[in-house]
Amino acid sequence: MNGGHVFGRHSAAQLPKVVAGDDVWLIDSAGKRYLDASGGAAVSSLGHSNRVVLDAAKEQLDAIAFAHTGFFTSDPAEQLADKLVSLAPDGIDRVYLVSGGSEAVEAAIKLARQYFVEVGQPQRSQVISRWQSYHGNTLGALAAGGNRWRRAQFEPLLPSTMHQIDPCHYWRWGGPDESAFDYGQRVANQLEDKIIELGADTVAAFFAEPVVGATMGAVPASEGYFKRIREICDKYGVLLVLDEVMCGAGRTGTYFASEQEDIVPDIICMAKGLAAGVQPIGAMLCSVKIYDAIAKGSGFFQHGHTYMGHPVAAATGLAVIGEIERLGLLENVQKMGRTLRDALDARFGQDPYVGDIRGRGLFLGIELVADKETKQPFEPGLGLNKLIKKAAMAEGLICYPFGGTVDGKSGDHILLAPPFIIDETHVEMIVDRLDLAIATAFAQSGVS
Ligand SMILES: Cc1ncc(COP(=O)(O)O)c(C=O)c1O
Predict the structure, then answer these.
(1) Closest ligand 1 atom, CA of 209?
(2) Pocket flag, ligand 1, residue 213 (CB < 6 Å)
(3) C-beta of 36 in contact with ligand 1 (< 6 A)
(4) At the N or C end, where does the chain have fewer CB atoms within 10 A?
């Protein structure tokens, strides 16, 4: 245990100290091994000791660690951008490399705004997103997000040009006689209503996570939802920004999560799995139309960060994509995703307190409820998700439980996002340890 001067997320004194990583395992200073079944927060997609990736980072450090992008470009940055564009949906043509997810989202907000200034529509300054989404913690990204708990104390600082519509989560919000498709269309149409309410020519962009991660626990939208969203954006000239910071980079079984929605966004945000946690990196990808508007207009995107296009981060990201391809890991994500999903269904499907098991690929969520029939969440004061996290760590399992699943306050879910390299034995361990952790947390909170 440590308790020094680090101003961390929580009091450092409560946390074990990590000293090593081995395959899918994290090892603390007491030698205890934790199966990393959430990759932290869906970050460590290749586990913790991929030699090829670690060597790529070291080689780049030896060649040139950093040169400011105001003066130089670099091979790793150029090659990573080329590679991402080759994988991205048609029309996505440019890559803006930053250092994390919030930076990617900030860049997207500002690019959407500047695009409309460049094309002579400066009245477009409003941004719409969804309640219960998470787009990052910097002020712009926080304002674009829809998690009330994260926003609450900063609300006075958040711009009034950011607006939210409902999320798309059929299991919780679908009507009793409504099909998933009809529900998806109904909530997608809220975007049109909101655009009209704000003034059809004042909206710049709509932001959404294709699979909602941290704040809802791996919730994909209903079939047809994103197609309808794309139609509405096209109708009103609004840019569609998909935030794939958590669900992208292979996590759902395709390199881009939006591939499974069969739509092409105007802007994609990525981070986390892009360099699998070996280096901090993020990326904002945009269409040729947006890039050209700026290139042929002012010629300068009024943005930038010191560490953008960092050569070591870019070399690492490139190596991660190389390993995903060399080891056929998208196939393993699909296969092990099904195996893990089946194992979760088998173990927890009949549990009276497990309301929903959902997700895509190796991005799965379990939502806990006090009453399966009514979907009534547990009393937030129980702190169930925190107890599960602690009990799981005691069992040697890293998972990502969180609260506020329903409305930012109540609701508990557990997010699983294990490395793409897991096999059946890991799946068994994850399910066994999670089962024990949930039982311990229930016992501690008096739920029988
Ligand atoms: C969907 C999404 N967008 C943005 C972010 C912010 O990324 P970062 O924490 O790297 O700033 C996150 C982080 O969890 C995320 O899940």
Answers:
(1) 1
(2) yes
(3) no
(4) C
In single-letter form, the type of residue at position 124 comes to: R
276 lines ligand 1 (CB under 6 A): no
List helix spans (H) across 2-50.
Answer: 39-42
Ligand 1 centre distance from Cα of residue 135 (Å): 6
Site to probe by mutation for ligand 1, drawn from 97, 209, 246 as the one with most ligand atoms within 8 Å of Cβ, is 246
Instruction: Report the C-alpha gap between 76 and 388 in whole angstroms.
Output: 41
| Ligand 1 closest atom vs CA 102 | 11
Could you list the beta-strand ranges (E) of 276-370.
282-287, 354-360, 363-368
CB–CB of 360/212 below 8 Å? no
Which residue from 109, 135, 138 has its CB within 8 A of the most atoms of ligand 1, so it is best to mutate? 135
CA distance 70 to 115: 22
* Beta-bridge partner residues of 26: 21, 34
Cβ atoms within 10 A of the Cβ of 155, count?
10
Task: Say how far apart CA 395 and CA 70 lie, in whole Å.
Answer: 49
For residue 141, give the ligand 1 atom closest to its CA: 4
pTM: 0.97
Q: What does the alpha-carbon distance between residue 405 and residue 356 come to, in Å, rounded to a whole number?
A: 12
State in Å: Cα 101 to ligand 1 middle: 4
| Burial class for 15, CB neighbours closer than 10 Å (0-12, 13-18, 19+) | middle
Say if ligand 1 is within 6 A of residue 209 CB.
yes
